[in-house]
Task: inverse folding
């Protein structure tokens, strides 16, 4: 009798874990399908209205964290003059590079490269 109860408890535990895993899988699948449908409707609406289909992006500049850490003074030497006040960010450029692409600071000082227009495919 003890063996039968142990087997029954084992199968019951397996069934509960299987059902829990199935619930998690189906909930994640539902969330992904809802996001995909929402993105598809958004893209369809952009096509219908004649606007460009823009991706969902986080408008975060990764250089801002570096600037903030470098301006705290932890990496400056004691005798070094304080850093210049930070320049306001340049407005986002539009075009082939995308709406959030800005030139890196100091690129206007590069002299050993001949600029070319981007290739159009």
Result:
């Amino acid at each position: 009798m003890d063996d039968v109860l142990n087997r029954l408890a084992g199968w019951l535990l397996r069934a509960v874990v299987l059902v829990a895993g199935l619930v998690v899988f189906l909930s994640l699948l539902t969330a992904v399908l809802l996001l995909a449908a929402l993105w598809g409707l958004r893209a369809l609406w952009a096509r219908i209205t004649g606007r460009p289909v823009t991706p969902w992006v986080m408008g975060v500049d990764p250089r801002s964290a570096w600037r903030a850490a470098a301006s705290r003074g932890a990496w400056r030497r004691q005798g070094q003059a304080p850093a210049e006040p930070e320049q306001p960010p340049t407005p986002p450029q539009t075009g082939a590079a995308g709406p959030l692409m800005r030139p890196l600071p100091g690129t206007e000082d590069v002299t050993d490269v001949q600029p070319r227009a981007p290739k159009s495919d």
Q: What stands out?
A: The first helix runs from residue 2 to 49.
